[in-house]
Design a protein that fits this description.
The protein is mainly alpha-helical and 129 residues long. It has a single domain (2-124), classed as Topoisomerase I, Chain A, domain 4 (Orthogonal Bundle). 78% of the residues lie in helices and 0% in strands. It has helices at 2-31, 39-77, 85-95, 100-120. Helix 1 (2-31) runs parallel beside helix 4. It starts with a helix and ends in a 9-residue tail after the last helix. The relative contact order is 0.19. The mean pLDDT is 93.
Length: 129
């Protein structure tokens, strides 16, 4: 079960490692544009980004929930063969995200809304010279 918990933790990290650079590259593209984007382009980019966001948020949330379930099962077990006491508690502390994952998801959503604002409104403005 411990291996599953570390895999779930790795999935959480992977979803964040995929989301952050992708969103920042998109923002870079918006700020580096030479001309205002027409509405059809802004809608297309926004739709693509929204699809990416939904995929990422669903995967991230499911990974967080799986990790939370596995940590709860490990905590209920109280120990594992070859891993007891302080070492067991340290492993659980490393894996347990508590309710902090809700803050992460809330940050994700807030950042997504900011990116959508830049796509739909900022990208339609004439870039500064």
């Amino acid at each position: 079960m411990l291996e599953l918990a570390f895999k779930a933790h790795g999935q959480v990290v992977d979803f964040w490692k995929f989301f952050v650079p992708s969103a920042l590259v998109l923002l870079g593209w918006i700020f580096a544009r030479k001309d205002p984007w027409p509405w059809p382009q802004r809608w297309a980019v926004a739709a693509g980004y929204l699809g990416f966001v939904v995929f990422n948020l669903v995967g991230l949330t499911e990974s967080y929930r799986l990790l939370e379930t596995l940590v709860g099962e490990l905590r209920a077990a109280g120990s594992l063969p070859g891993l007891t006491g302080t070492a067991f508690d340290a492993v659980l502390a490393r894996l347990d995200m508590g309710s902090g994952w809700l803050v992460g998801v809330a940050f994700h959503v807030a950042f997504d809304l900011l990116v959508l604002y830049f796509i739909l409104f900022w990208a339609g403005r004439k870039p500064p010279s």
